[in-house]
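Take one protein record:
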Amino acid sequence: MGGFPHLAYGTPRKLPKPYSLPGRVVVLDVAFAANAGGASYEKTTLPFIQGLGSRLAMWVDHHDHDRHPDYANDPRFVLRTKAQHGACPEMVTPERVAAAGPVDTICCHLDFDGLCSAAKWIRGGVEPYEGADDDARAIDTRLGEPTERAGVLDRALRARPRDEALRGLMVRYLADGARDGAMYREFQVAAQAFHAMEREAKRLSAKYEVRGNLAICDARRRDGPYDKTALLLIGQRLAPISLVHDETTVTVAARFDSGIDLVSALGLNGGMPTRVSVAAKRLDEVIEILGRFQVAP
């Protein structure tokens, strides 16, 4: 690959327009859309795949979806489940990078997992630093502790979730082997803002109400930005399933290794089994369904 590739970012619900992506494209750590929040595979994922057509070099992802079998015979799609791979970077191997051939654009998810996958792809399938795959797995599953460096990068991204310049800088930092001390200090500064979000999550956690196997937190009245992941994790200490709702979204989560399938319970057609989000208008319905949900001992 000549030069640094064009970087684009996507989520299951919001993908870039195919025509905006130059040349051949690899997609990393972006799940197929579930039928939640106004998005769906048919409305979001499929048009993106069709729009790229033969320019799609490879799609590597580790999130469950019931449309994965549709691509079982297309070698460009390397689709696994969260249980098989806790994070995406470990799926980016030298063999897969070579098989995809030259690419001009990397479209990746906008968290540490996705950016680390992009950097590893640029490096030909070699980790940005020793242990980066393990760090991505610890951060994405919330099981185990990442290294201090990975923790700083993760907090920086969560503190500035809309900062595309920060994401681009982080991919370059990782692609260069995570050696630039000046860049790292910028990430440390960005990460400082996350502490306030953690404090607000802790304050909001006092609102948790436990109903059987469900811990429910109303986050509509808050003093500022909060870290939803931290708030959900606090709820999981109180009950097997935690639910946080605000003015736009209901988010439900269980431990990665719990065996709980929230996608199936809520009648969705894709996504991570242990963390799902739906529109706020479904709050009562979700509470009713999960209130009847039986958690295995």
In short: The first strand starts at residue 6 and ends at 9. The chain has a mean pLDDT of 93.
